[in-house]
Amino acid sequence: SQQGEEDPQALSIQEGENATMNCSYKTSINNLQWYRQNSGRGLVHLILIRSNEREKHSGRLRVTLDTSKKSSSLLITASRAADTASYFCATVWNSGNTPLVFGKGTRLSVIA
Amino acid sequence: EAQVTQNPRYLITVTGKKLTVTCSQNMNHEYMSWYRQDPGLGLRQIYYSMNVEVTDKGDVPEGYKVSRKEKRNFPLILESPSPNQTSLYFCASSPRSTSGNNEQFFGPGTRLTVL
């Protein structure tokens, strides 16, 4: 399996702090995506970054991609209690029309 | 409203009793997929379909069947469920694009317990 791996597995921070999650993968990718999952619910797409991009922003989210290190990071700034969820990275292999491969996720707890 | 629906949302059954979990999307997506989610293992793909009448195995296809007779529906069939298939199941769909934009839209999940 070419599953990506998130790090850390769990993260607990205070409201207002920034949260950083990392993802490493093994193969050459077409793009990398981050998803969020509230407990027991379906995943929601957050942001997609292509292999030729290095950084992308969406609201309080910032994603970076380093293809030389085969890694990505998701930064959530000024976290809120409502950000408490699991976050997954998912990769699309280089051919671009292959299934999404998910990591095991980072469980983020934001304490009010 | 654009969405992926799954039914049932919760199911408790017994070993060996055939069951089907339905999945339907109203976004005219070509790509559909089934995942199972287990504690500590993340999401693992069971089967996926790139288009009507085209299905392929994912990482954990054993014990499952799928069909894609029409674009909007992608049912997951467990011919003879076993307790190790107790899990949370998600269906997802995605517009297939040559640009490689494979953002997936997920259903709400089906929690299956096999006794």
Short recap of the structure:
The complex is a heterodimer of chains A (112) and B (115). Chain A contains no helices and eleven strands.
Give a verbal description of the structure:
The complex is a heterodimer of chains A (112) and B (115). Chain A contains no helices and 11 strands. In chain A, the strands form 2 sheets. In chain A, strands 2, 4, 5, 9, 10 and 11 form a 6-stranded mixed beta sheet that branches. Chain A has strands at residues 5-7, 10-14, 19-24, 29-37, 43-50, 55-58, 61-66, 71-76, 85-93, 100-102, 106-111. In chain A, a hairpin with a 4-residue loop joins strand 7 and strand 8 (71-76). In chain B, strand 4 and strand 5 (42-51) form a beta hairpin. Chain B is mostly beta strands and 115 residues long. The interface between A and B is medium-sized, with 26 and 31 residues.
Overall outline of chain A = globular
Number of strands of chain A: 11
- Output the radius of gyration of chain B: 13 Å
Distance between the termini of chain A: 38 Å
Mean pLDDT of chain B: 92
**What is the CA-atom radius of gyration of chain A, in angstroms?**
13 Å
C-alpha termini separation of chain B? 36 Å
Taken in chain order, the helices and strands of chain A follow as EEEEEEEEEEE
Amount of beta strand of chain B: over 45%
Strand content of chain A: over 45%
Work out the oligomeric state of the chains in this entry: heterodimer
Structural class of the secondary elements of chain B? mainly beta
Mean pLDDT of chain A: 90
Note the run of SSEs of chain B as H and E.
EEEEEEEEEEE
**How many helices of chain A in DSSP terms?**
0
Tell me the greatest interface.
A-B, 26 and 31 residues
Q: Which residue ranges of chain B are poorly predicted, with pLDDT under 50 across at least 5 consecutive positions?
A: none
Q: What would you call the shape of chain B?
A: globular
